[in-house]
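Regression test case RT-17, inverse folding.

Input:
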């Protein structure tokens, strides 16, 4: 017996020694990895060769071959009226790296600034390009050629906006940010960056100023990089929409945080806004077939999309205020819907009266789903937005993540008849390349660069529709609308329920496109539901313990009311984004 205990004890000691040795080995490896990381961070060359920005983004497949269409779409140059511009895609052959920092910004990976080079004869730089290091290289700036004789002028001087000499950051030497001082009647649209304290040359080959009537006011587009002393942001036209003339130049601004701001930078203006650079109908179809989204529904989704024609053909009724007892069946093409007007509550749509028919319509039909395309000029006609609208006969109820409760049903809160969602494809009219995609979400949306999109089946982007609410997202997972890890759940996942938007689509609006009657129905696509949302929420709150009740009410007050609405929505043409920027 003692022998057995002794052997067991020896075996125990042996195992302890093995475990201790193994732990020591792991710690040694960890220290080695830490030392290796510290060594790498001290070596700019190693850092530069491992940054995503060192690799240029390429689409999974070749860009679409643009058929001839009679206009100027895809021809590489656009005349803005006395000023011809080209889009310079940033690459090793079209630009040179001017400066880089290895920290700060997105994921604390720093930033790189590029100067356009090797421009075609008579074309001049308007500004430099800045990109976070945590993304694959994907960007552009415009360069310009003077075709009127007085559209461009060299600067008369420079003002130093800021330099990084005293900044405690890992950088390729100090950077100096210069803003051109322009002659009277001309404006600067971009910055010049050097690694020397000497002012840049005043020659037009360095940077050009643009005649004032060919410029417009600009504003911050996206935050690019920053420290406690400065911030860099890309610029966009302040006034944007289908009739706006401001042109996105791809340049950036630099804002010192502890000194007075520099003079404003401007964007370009298309004074020849004739839509001649927009794609033809045939070209639009080719573009959409190339980039059309796959829309994935959640595996637990009960309420599927459908076509508008299917919705109307299955007994949907048109009601009129004051004559509610005599609803009228809607024609399959919507031709008997009231046209124009406003969302005045005079008319609304509802399901058929029969219970089984109502449930049938409510569930939608993937096999009879179609998307609807709105073609919009953007940034003075230098880009085309293909807005992809999708219709759901029903929007399901909202669910809440609250503290330890992963999914709390809010009853019928959030339910409503009719649901319109959209994804927008923003395409360059210079070359037909997809630049960004916009995903509509409740109370807003997100613009995503093409280099950050998920693709499937070539260059077709992937979109995810949230469970019940159908908001659009670029990635699967959970997104909460609230704060502190609590809020309305948006659950996205792949499943065998999906829409390949390129299979069934219809162009319903845009230059030269005849609009279907249902598009000009401006009233509600569902009835006004007389639920007392606050009463329902109070009922849920009262079922919770006192401390949780207070937290619940505080959370609900932070959630956008439209997420909780039960009123039927208006159609696409009534949305603010119809004529504005997404």
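Golden output:
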């Amino acid at each position: 017996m003692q022998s057995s205990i002794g052997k067991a004890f020896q075996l125990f000691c042996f195992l302890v020694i093995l475990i201790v040795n193994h732990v020591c080995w792991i710690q040694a490896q960890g220290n080695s990895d830490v030392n290796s990381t510290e060594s790498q961070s001290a070596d700019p060359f190693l850092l530069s060769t491992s940054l995503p920005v060192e690799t240029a983004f390429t689409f999974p497949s070749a860009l679409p071959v643009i058929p001839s269409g009679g206009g100027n779409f895809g021809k590489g140059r656009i005349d803005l009226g006395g000023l011809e511009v080209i889009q310079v895609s940033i690459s090793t052959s079209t630009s040179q790296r001017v400066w880089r920092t290895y920290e700060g910004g997105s994921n604390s990976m720093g930033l790189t600034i590029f100067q356009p080079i090797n421009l075609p004869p008579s074309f001049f730089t308007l500004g430099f390009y800045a990109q976070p290091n945590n993304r694959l290289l994907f960007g552009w700036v415009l360069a310009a050629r003077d075709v009127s004789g007085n559209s461009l002028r060299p600067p008369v001087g420079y003002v130093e906006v800021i330099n990084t000499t005293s900044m405690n950051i890992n950088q390729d030497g100090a950077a100096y940010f210069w803003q051109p001082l322009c002659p009277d009647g001309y404006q600067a649209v971009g910055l010049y960056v050097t690694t020397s304290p000497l002012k840049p040359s005043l020659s037009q080959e360095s940077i050009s100023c643009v005649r004032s009537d060919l410029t417009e006011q600009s504003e911050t587009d996206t935050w690019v990089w920053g420290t406690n002393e400065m911030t860099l942001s890309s610029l966009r036209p302040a006034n944007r929409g289908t009739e706006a003339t401001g042109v996105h130049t791809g340049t950036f601004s630099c804002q010192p945080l502890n000194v007075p701001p520099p003079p404003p930078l401007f964007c370009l203006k298309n004074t020849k806004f004739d839509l001649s650079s927009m794609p033809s109908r045939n070209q639009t179809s080719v573009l959409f077939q190339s980039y059309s989204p796959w829309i994935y529904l959640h595996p637990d989704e009960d309420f599927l999309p459908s076509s508008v024609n299917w919705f109307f053909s299955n007994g949907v009724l048109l009601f009129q205020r004051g004559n509610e007892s005599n609803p009228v069946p809607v024609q399959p093409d919507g031709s008997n819907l009231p046209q124009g007007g406003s969302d005045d509550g005079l008319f609304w749509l509802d399901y058929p009266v029969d219970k089984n028919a109502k449930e049938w319509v409510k569930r939608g039909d993937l096999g009879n789903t179609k998307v609807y395309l709105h073609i919009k000029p953007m940034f003075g006609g230098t880009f085309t937005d293909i807005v992809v609208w999708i219709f759901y006969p029903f929007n399901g109820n909202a669910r809440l993540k609250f503290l330890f409760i992963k999914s709390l049903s809010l009853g019928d809160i959030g339910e409503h008849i009719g649901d319109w969602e959209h994804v927008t494809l923003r395409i360059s009219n210079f070359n037909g390349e997809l630049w960004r995609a916009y995903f509509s979400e409740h109370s807003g949306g997100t613009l995503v660069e093409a280099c950050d999109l998920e693709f499937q089946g070539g260059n077709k982007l992937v979109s995810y529709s949230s469970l019940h609410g159908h908001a659009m997202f670029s990635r699967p997972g959970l997104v909460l609308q609230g704060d502190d890890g609590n809020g309305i759940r948006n659950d996205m996942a792949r499943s065998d329920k999906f829409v390949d938007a390129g299979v069934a689509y219809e162009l319903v609006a845009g230059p030269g496109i005849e609009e279907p009657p249902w598009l000009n129905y401006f009233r509600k696509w569902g009835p006004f539901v007389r639920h007392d949302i606050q009463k329902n929420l109070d009922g849920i709150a009262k079922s919770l313990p006192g401390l949780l009740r207070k937290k619940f009410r505080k959370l609900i007050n932070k959630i956008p009311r439209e997420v909780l609405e039960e009123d039927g929505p208006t159609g696409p043409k009534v949305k603010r984004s119809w004529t504005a920027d997404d």
